[in-house]
Q: What sequence folds into this?
């Protein structure tokens, strides 16, 4: 039992130091990725399982060591009582008690290496358990730190993403408002152009109207009396008739 347990403990300790402990030592919570955290989580599960088994083995070895120490102590006490009895016994009893004491002392001498072995196994089992317990605590702390940092990093990333989306939406709204304003400016420019064109057309219309008046014969001039009165008022001599013009030529 002792040899097997010692070999078992040594092999397990070697495996832990070669694999799990190296990963724990090299694990950096400050820059751990999700994959690395997952790997450490698996290691922690295996270490915890080994720690539980090591605790059970330690309890068993401790219990066996205590039982054999108790049995050894009882036999030592019995040997001391027999020795005391032999000192006060008569020769016949003394010989009989001496034979029993000899037998008991022989059993005690055989038990000494067994007691030492059980106590040694209990110590080694506790050492192995303490090593695994320390590794589990270290891995758990590193895992919690890494997970907390990764969670915080994800929270910051999600927050930054939301802010970026809001900023993009705000930019789009600003662009939309700018587009509306630009269209409004264009509408204003078109309105100004149409107003100016309307004024030009209205002025052109007035010109045409005035020209029409100037070029059109006055209705008053269609009346000869009104026409003569207008000429007289203007100091224009009355128009001569054809006979008057011919008479003037004869003179």
A:
């Amino acid at each position: 039992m002792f040899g097997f347990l010692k070999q078992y403990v040594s092999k397990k300790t070697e495996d832990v130091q070669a694999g799990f402990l190296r990963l724990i030592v090299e694990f950096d919570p400050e820059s751990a990725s999700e994959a690395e955290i997952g790997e450490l989580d698996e290691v922690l599960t295996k270490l915890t399982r080994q720690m539980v088994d090591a605790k059970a083995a330690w309890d068993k070895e401790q219990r066996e060591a205590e039982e054999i120490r108790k049995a050894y102590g009882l036999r030592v006490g019995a040997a001391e009582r027999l020795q005391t009895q032999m000192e006060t016994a008569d020769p016949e009893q003394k010989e009989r008690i001496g034979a029993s004491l000899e037998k008991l002392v022989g059993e005690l001498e055989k038990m000494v290496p067994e007691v030492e072995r059980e106590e040694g196994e209990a110590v080694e089992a506790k050492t192995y358990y303490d090593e695994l317990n320390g590794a589990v605590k270290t891995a758990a702390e590193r895992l919690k730190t890494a997970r907390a940092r990764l969670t915080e990093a994800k929270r910051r990333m999600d927050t930054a993403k939301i802010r970026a989306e809001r900023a993009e939406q705000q930019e789009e709204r600003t662009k939309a408002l700018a587009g509306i304003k630009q269209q409004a400016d264009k509408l204003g420019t078109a309105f100004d152009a149409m107003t100016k064109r309307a004024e030009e057309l209205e002025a052109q219309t007035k010109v045409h109207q005035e020209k029409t008046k100037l070029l059109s014969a006055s209705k008053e001039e269609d009346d000869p009396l009104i026409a003569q009165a207008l000429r007289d008022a203007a100091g224009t001599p009355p128009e001569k008739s054809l006979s008057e013009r011919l008479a003037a030529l004869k003179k």
Summary: The chain has two domains: 2-166, 222-251. Residues 1-6 have pLDDT under 50 and may be disordered.
